[in-house]
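Hi C.,

You asked whether I'd gotten around to modeling the 242-residue construct. I have! Everything is below, sequence then structure, no commentary in between.
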Amino acid sequence: MRQRREAAKVELDLISRARAGDGDAFRALSEPHRRELQVHCYRMLGSFQDAEDALQDTLLSAWRGLAGFDGRASIRTWLYRIATNRCLSVLRSASRRPAKEWDIPGVRPPEPTRLGEVAWLEPYPDALLDGAITVPLGPEARYEQTESISLAFITALQALPPRQLAVLVLRDVLGFPTNEVADMLDTTADSVKSALKRARTGLRSRWPQAPDCEPPAAGSPRRRRSRRNSSARSNPPTSTRW
């Protein structure tokens, strides 16, 4: 309890200094979350380069908008809100619409064809995987972290409508509570639940490994492991780039 109070005191001091224009203080706030935000953007966008661009935009927006941080959510949740909405803007652009699948019954297209392919899809660089997916998860996360960054999973995600993709990643991959996801997306809890149901159905149709079950039950080993992960604290990286 004492450590939590001390950590909260340090964070408040950093926020105050960052609002006053202290770049080092902002880096101290954001750097512990940098790698996980990059992975989040990659899950959303399916492209490492686009994820890095979205991350830079996220950190710049956070730096410029820190005065609007009201403290109702954690800095981590606030950064995820910014990153998610930045990725949604990218996904909704005309250049990021997945290729149309062949839909003429009884007729096969000539080979080779790129119909239905996601042109920008690429794997996450192996050299960056160490430490990239060992992040705190909420107790309702349904996927193992290594599973949730596999190319097959990312490919299936890219076929979902943007809002459904965001809801599924925030709820089932990261385990954020429904009300927090609703706040991140400026919507209602009922809307999140509806989008999540449709997203799970869409994902299962493209990725058979998707679980049919609800999140792990209270007291189960997976739930206990998720809770342990949620309470873990990452060591701040030494990089100063943002």
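If it helps when you're writing up: The two ends are 31 Å apart (CA to CA).

Thanks,
B.
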